[in-house]
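Hi W.,

Here's what went into the run:
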Amino acid sequence: MIRPFSLSDLNAILKIERESFPKSPYDRMTFVHLHSLYPEHFLVYTGTTGDKEDRIWGYIIFSPEEHIISLAVLTPQRKKGVGKELLQKAMETPRLKGLQAEVRRSNLGAQAFYLRMGFRIVGAVPNYYGNEDALIIQWTPSISGRA
Ligand SMILES: CC(C)(COP(=O)(O)OP(=O)(O)OC[C@H]1O[C@@H](n2cnc3c(N)ncnc32)[C@H](O)[C@@H]1OP(=O)(O)O)[C@@H](O)C(=O)NCCC(=O)NCCS
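Here's what came out:
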């Protein structure tokens, strides 16, 4: 199930963030700030792991300026369609003209994921992450038709 983030999800989100982006994880206050800025664009995916309790498996944050700020899935739950569902939800936002994100040049898994989802690499920003380039990836409904 996909639903809006609430503050009680924070610890679960921080765990996913730290394991997904060990070089530059967002901290607690950043997530609180992002939630206050974009409450409708901070979504979590909940799943059941066997103990009947819903757990946070992944999240996406994107801005009204059509920028994906973060997208991550708990490691054991990857390659099961969670990221795809979260991204599709963002792609289905009414009146959306496209989405853009930055991905580390070394993050081949995320690049493969975004390309599979209909994104294109449209540029690069040297040393965006300090000592590593970012690739700029972009999706528009008319290019991919996958919306
Ligand atoms: C990138 C990420 C969000 C993908 O989430 P996921 O839930 O594993 O992806 P899905 O299972 O929904 O995959 C959707 C499609 O992408 C493909 N894909 C996903 N990860 C892939 C990988 N590492 N290599 C190749 N293809 C991949 C899947 O095979 C699937 O293709 P299909 O539709 O043909 O079956 C997840 O790997 C992650 O959290 N990575 C760490 C954080 C990160 O890099 N975020 C992106 C930068 S903002």
